[in-house]
């Protein structure tokens, strides 16, 4: 357990240097020592353009207005809550003035739907308006802390800047000894996060990944569970209808969370909530305190509720979840939770197919697009701090990335009354060419965002939407060319997939729904806000996301989202409202991935696996042997690219060997004894009738196995044909003995050339029997 008192001797020196802890003073009504600040360490530039304090970092508190502050943790004893914390500043002196227009940030909403937001919080909730801001609580290694921002310089409602010479803090009426305050960064660095600790200690063989969905969607998601098992994640599908009757709670969302607590306690790490609000429970939360339930417009759709398993999200039992002081949520997640905002089987199939294609063969043998990024940027965000937020975020990208900050950026400026950047039809063509990552920095709505407006977010506007209109424009009309992207948006409501329900009743697809469900195009992953973003602060989370993503390519992309929320935890509304859409195990390529090649030698008792990359041995590759979607054995290649799997194969079964490595595509091979495997009819019971089975795997790349049963010796013709009815391959044509049989099709035509990706059919014809089934080849 981390002990604050034990750490104080180390931290005290840092506090003395960082804070200029010069003297002890008494604030009115407070008897104990206070933290004091030195006026000589403060800097206020002309027109308050620069407001700084030595060694403090700056927090954005308004429209391009930032104030210096220090971050602390204060340990909470039993019975102590955030509402018991109070503070009082002393020795205030006016040191400058800012324009009142800078005091309020503005939402990134296309239609000003959230225009009342800046006026909602009272002064106590406004960052920078009081010396001590209680941002929330955090639980670390069974200890509970209040998170405090302490501002040496504050601003009032008239724009006057005040220097605070000292501040006193009380909790439950007792003065806080400054020695019990510790720098937040030092505590987190020492203790780590609970989420990373759980991930490192997950039990071997335990269920790691659960896909929660409905019975209607389960079959369409089964190939995803199979594939995840094949690539090393112990995965199962759980039906929401089976979960809810077994767990207690005030509503279905709480019952689901209780199940996830049990899943986590058994070693679980990853959760995919596969369904929108019509399929699975959701939780709306509020980032302030309220005595009556706020309008749904101001309640965030929050999947963090399902990821944080230690906080109490409705302590006061008023049905308003996530309140800052009335409740006790913990913003540190224990689980990685992604969501598919879908409700139809074909949407599930589309996502599963493109996820597998992204990880096994991105771009259909043309993966070069992955080292490129596209930026949409308009209005105030395009002009922010002169360089524009697109350029600030682009600094996170490595030098080898080709970054397009021209085609989708409003020209000549965000405030131009007649901007000249590309129209929607041309932007659609450019985006269809393929980019590994797409950034959206714009005013938005549930179904899209503005690419250009007259002035700042005024009409006339051009809106890039989901594309259900009749003119063939929008994201659903992107070319289905296997060039799948990862998307990030700070626009309002782009992740608000619940807005087709009361009280919104919006028509058409939400952008998150459209991108995730799109066939062979759109998004493999998407980070977006369910309600609002902010012009002057949301880009900070976006920059932090990509800083983390590129610094940690071995980690799932969802970890970068959690890291950005941890860095900017004091923007509580953004932390609540931002959700991750897609597979929570997904690792975004940070460069063109390596292509791994597998060779397997079988002996009587083991498999000798060799993995190479571009002709060179590939070390540190994970090798997984699986059967019927279940993990049988795992190994890691050595410096020579070899690994030995100690397992005896059954000659009558079909196995799969997969290999994975960071920034490499997944390589898989099927283990079958021969082109057509027959069973001795004397050793097994003969089939009762002719049967053509569904190929496995399906979808597949590059090969698949087709199985069929013959109750008697037969002349067999097995053909593969395309959607035009043209025969492309004939895997079997001849006399076959009775019994079960398997044949592998390697995705090549009769000339030995690889066929294009798409839908194919295979037909079995025997004397008196014929059947046809469909299969999908991913490219």
State the main characteristics.
779 residues; alpha+beta; Rossmann fold; Immunoglobulin-like; six-stranded mixed β-sheet; five-stranded antiparallel β-sheet; 43 strands; elongated
Can you identify the CATH class of the largest domain?
Alpha Beta
CATH architecture of the largest domain: 3-Layer(aba) Sandwich
Number of domains: 4
* Structure class: alpha+beta
**Biggest sheet architecture:** 6 strands, mixed
Beta content? 25-35%
Mean pLDDT: 88
- Radius of gyration from the alpha-carbon trace, in angstroms: 29 Å
Adjacency order of strands in the biggest sheet: 20-19-21-25-26-27
Shape estimate: elongated
Question: Concise description?
Answer:
With 779 residues, the protein is an alpha+beta fold. The chain contains 15 helices and 43 strands.
Describe this structure as you would to a colleague.
The chain has 779 residues and is of the alpha+beta class. It folds into 4 domains: 4-192, no CATH class; 361-582, Rossmann fold; 594-671, Immunoglobulins (Immunoglobulin-like); 674-779, Sandwich (Immunoglobulin-like), CATH 2.60.40. The strands form 11 sheets. A 6-stranded mixed beta sheet has the order 20-19-21-25-26-27. A hairpin with a 3-residue loop joins β23 and β24 (458-465). The radius of gyration is 29 Å and the shape is elongated.
